[in-house]
Amino acid sequence: MRIVCIGGGPAGLYFAISAKLRDAGHDITVIERDPPGATYGWGVVYWDDLLDILFRNDPDSARAVRAESVLWQEQRVILRSEQTAYLPGYGFSVGRAALLDILGQRAAELGIDLQYRREVEDLAEVADADLVVICDGANSRTRTRHGEDFGARVDLGGNPYIWLGTDKVFDSFTFAFEHSCAGWIWFHAYPSTAGTSTCIVECAQRTWQGLGFDSLSSEDSVRLLEKIFEHALDGHALISQSRSEPARWLRFTHVTNRTWYHNNLVLVGDAAHTTHFTLGSGTRLAMIDAVMLAQSLYHHDEPSTALADYDQRGRAALRQIQAGARTSMAWFERADHYLDRQDAVAFAYSMAGRQGAQPPWRYQTHLATQIPTVRKALRRFHTARRGYLALRRGESAAHLRPAPRTTR
Ligand SMILES: Cc1cc2nc3c(=O)[nH]c(=O)nc-3n(C[C@H](O)[C@H](O)[C@H](O)COP(=O)(O)OP(=O)(O)OC[C@H]3O[C@@H](n4cnc5c(N)ncnc54)[C@H](O)[C@@H]3O)c2cc1C
């Protein structure tokens, strides 16, 4: 089958790899407007469940992704640089650039035709394809042009956010909330590559305007943020440059589609659906879509049956996650309300339960998590669990070492 993917992000590259691995006879082209190595954003977090899927689907690229990833342990919630509360758990993070580099190399190795620096303006350019995979992201031009066929709906979140990097290395997933003269402002930070962390800053629209971000240049915005978060960043710098452009303040693009396919066009990843970044799941879901579509094409002789199967299974699996993501986004849009009334421990508890009610005993375990010896025991337990899961999926022993301790 002749397949063209429009967009060489995680969805497009991983679909190409997954389809080619299942049928080497497919003739697959991935068209990406940017040059290799250029991308927006910083690191993305993920958990063991994604590694399980990647190792099952393509151990070669999975090993490379794991080797480029860093581990973070616990979530730390800091209020006004004064109070800290903890949530247990761990996860991984990988730089977007590194992830795309690995997937691009793997795709090339499998004989997929990668056409960088080419922007698809019109579907007529790919009219010779049997299947066109639309994976050009949340603001997909192709989906926008065919919006009615997909029943596309796009709306924007209320809080402005900016996706930055920092040379401070966090070893936990860290939320720092500061009270400025115009209201609360906070960051979500986690390690992304050796020597850097991702730092996403968010606040309510009125705070954003009150602090003057609507009229500040990108450079001045970053300097002001460094001042606001001086303590939480230990005086480290924020880095704005990404894709050789300064990062911009944005509002989250929430995408839904009534259907993910139309004739020989199929939506994958953010072009099909987005989930708010406070869930940390968009890349994971894009890669799961990719595997699901490749699998459906492999199982069904008739492409139209394969697309219907992918559409039905994909949308059913996503419904609850997307609802949870909306609730999470809405909770952060009301964060000022909770921050004004709660201390760090109570606030962290309500943040952890933002997607639904928690059983009463959870609060007792949350209180216990604030005790250092309990956290130490939980870390040991998680290290053992991580090791077990890693061995089960066939990771090499090199990745089972605990993460190096950093400052704080
Ligand atoms: C602030 C923030 C933080 C996030 N953090 C996480 C996280 O921690 N964990 C997580 O799992 N997810 C996270 N995400 C979500 C994640 O970034 C996306 O879900 C993921 O990138 C989707 O992959 P994709 O391939 O569908 O789209 P993209 O990664 O957007 O890729 C689309 C590609 O298409 C290309 N393109 C666009 N138009 C054209 C065209 N006309 N012709 C050719 N090429 C084109 C683009 O250049 C791009 O390379 C975050 C998102 C945001 C905004």
Please tell me the CATH architecture by its name.
Answer: 3-Layer(bba) Sandwich
Work out the strand percent.
25-35%
Structural class: alpha/beta
* Unreliable residue stretches: 402-408
Helix share bin = 40-55%
What's the structural domain tally? Answer: 1
Q: What is the multimeric organization of the chains shown?
A: single chain
Coarse shape: globular
- CA radius of gyration: 21 Å
Heterogens: flavin-adenine dinucleotide
CATH topology: FAD/NAD(P)-binding domain
Output the CATH homologous superfamily.
Answer: FAD/NAD(P)-binding domain
Tell me briefly what this model is.
The chain has 408 residues and is an alpha/beta fold.
What is the element layout, followed by pairings?
Blueprint lengths: L1 E5 L3 H13 L4 E5 L11 E4 L1 H10 L1 H10 L1 E10 L3 E13 H14 L3 E3 L15 E4 L6 H5 L1 H4 L1 E15 L6 E8 L2 E11 L2 E8 L1 H6 L7 H11 L9 E2 L1 E2 L2 E2 L3 E8 L3 E2 L2 E3 L14 H18 L3 H31 L1 H5 L4 H9 L8 H9 L2 H22 L15
Parallel strand pairs: 1-2, 1-7, 2-6, 4-9, 7-17
Antiparallel strand pairs: 3-5, 4-5, 8-11, 8-12, 8-15, 9-10, 10-11, 13-14, 16-17
The protein binds flavin-adenine dinucleotide.
